[in-house]
Amino acid sequence: LCKPQQARAALAGLAKLHAFFWEGSAFWRADADGGAACDELRSAVWPSGCYWQPSMQPAEQLTTLVAHHWPEHLHNFAETFAASPMLEGVELESVGERLQRVAAAVAAEAHPFGECGCGEGAKTLVHGDPKSANIFFRQGPGSAADDVQVGYIDMQWSGFGLAATDVAHHIVAGLDIECLSADGCKEEALLDHYHASLVAQLVELGGFPEAQAARLLPRETLQAQYEAAVLDMCRVVFAYQWARVKASPATLAKNAPSMGRNSYNKSVDHACWLVRQCDNMLRRREARTAAATKTA
Question: Within 10 Å of residue 113's Cβ, how many Cβ atoms?
Answer without folding.
Answer: 20
